[in-house]
Structures are given as C-alpha cells and as structure tokens.
Design goal:
Length: about 250
C-alpha cells in the first residue's frame, strides 16, 4: 500500500503493504490553506478493486493523540478524492495522517505525518510538493528491457532500512510460476530456465520495519537458437554369412 503525499510540508511519495499483502495503494495527498482556518486535502485516486475507503486523522500539537478519524470512506469525486477540514484555530499547529482500507477491513499503516500551522494572514502561502523515492526496484536488467538469454542475474536496489528482499517471477503479473525465493546478501539472484519467448513478470519485494513493499516489472523474452547440437548415434552392425553343407 502506498503512503499519502501531503502538500503542506516536506513529505512525499511512499508505498505500503497492508496486512497479508492483499492490496497496494498509491495515495498522493496534497493540501493547501484555503483561507485562515480552512484546509483542503486531496489525494490521487486508486484503482484497486478491493479499495473500500480512506481514513484521515488529525492531531493538535503538542498532543500526540490522533484520536478517531475526522474523515472516513470514499470521496464523492473518485477521480480526485478530497475532504475539507474546517474550524481550525488560528496560530495552532496541526498534524495530519492518512490510511487506506480494503473491503476486508484491513487498514494500511499511516502515512508520514504532515504538519501545518494555521496563520492569521489572509493571503494563503503557495503549496509545495516534495518527492521522495518509491520502494526499491530492480536495477538490472533495466525494467522493460528485452532479454536474449534464459539465464539472467537480477539485481535490486537496497537502502539501509531494508531488512530483506524476495524475488517472484511468473507468466502473469504477481505470479510465481517460474521462480520464488530470497535474494542473495548482495541483493542479486541468478535464475535459469526462463522461457525463450513472451513476457515475464518480475516482482521485487522489500521488507522494512513498516511492512512489505513491492515493485512490479516486466520483461520481453526473445531468445534465438544460435546453434543446434545434433547427437548422432552410430550402431555397429555385424553381418555373418553361413555356409550351407550338403
């Protein structure tokens, strides 16, 4: 599941995996001060079939308690979901986090917090967007490339907070028909027996302290037969001729 991106402060784009890894969301949150004590939060819509809704939490600093959600459910504008937050106190600092939940009731871990101090100025400050890296992905072979051999060494990106990496390879997106296993300590894995033609789908999973993250990649297999080995078997034949005695 992906983390929200608010436009109040310097937080950015991340992905999360909810319990049992049943779905992954990409939530992009942005916020701007509309006027004095009003705030609008908007996030990028998600296309997962089991998405049930979003939860927006708010705290008033210095309190660390977010309490119950101030917004729950789906937005009336699915393509650009948003919610308005009113009655904020001037000169007060607020923190906001967002989660998503699926039809089974699984809730994602919270986004990184976004904070804003409500100013008494009537001129709203311009919003800023700060981007951060997406979950680690495969760096070799380059995702989307054409592979010309059935034996490939896959190598993934790694950051200090990553605890483990797993590689899945299948003939369908997210599948494991071809390979499923852990990456080596150097974050690589050599896989043999890949198909000679068609598309393969490779999932690079990363375990962090916050849960499992994943990146999906695909490659085109185009392996030509450079040589043919012909095995010839030679049979020794012996012919014996007998003589007829009269």
């Amino acid at each position: 599941m992906c983390l929200p991106l608010l436009m109040f402060h310097n937080y950015a784009y991340h992905r999360w995996a909810i319990s049992l890894q049943t779905m992954f969301l990409a939530i992009l949150l942005d916020g701007s001060i509309l006027y004095a004590a009003d705030v609008t939060i908007t996030w990028q819509s998600n296309t997962e079939s089991d998405l049930a809704g979003y939860l927006v939490y708010q705290r008033t600093l210095p309190s660390i308690d977010f309490g119950t959600p101030i917004f729950s459910g789906l937005s009336p504008t699915p393509s650009s979901p948003s919610t308005n937050i009113s009655n904020l106190q001037l000169g007060t600092t607020y923190g906001f986090i967002v989660t998503a939940y699926d039809t089974s009731g699984n809730e994602s871990q919270p986004s990184q917090e976004k904070q804003i101090t409500v100013s008494s100025n009537t001129t709203p400050p311009p919003p800023t967007t700060i981007s951060s890296p997406a979950p680690p992905s495969l760096i070799f072979p380059p995702p989307g490339s054409i592979l010309t051999t059935t034996r490939i060494t896959f190598r993934g990106a790694h950051i200090d907070h990553d605890e483990n990496h797993i590689l899945h390879i299948g003939t369908t997106e997210g599948g494991t028909q071809i390979y499923r296993g852990k990456m080596n300590p150097d974050h690589s894995r050599t896989v043999s027996g890949l198909p000679t033609k068609g598309t393969i789908y490779v999932t690079f999973l990363t375990k962090t302290s916050s849960g499992w993250l994943k990146q999906n990649h695909s490659y085109i297999m185009n392996v030509s037969k450079s040589q043919k080995t012909t095995i010839k078997s030679t049979k020794n034949r012996s012919t014996s001729r007998g003589k007829r005695i009269r």
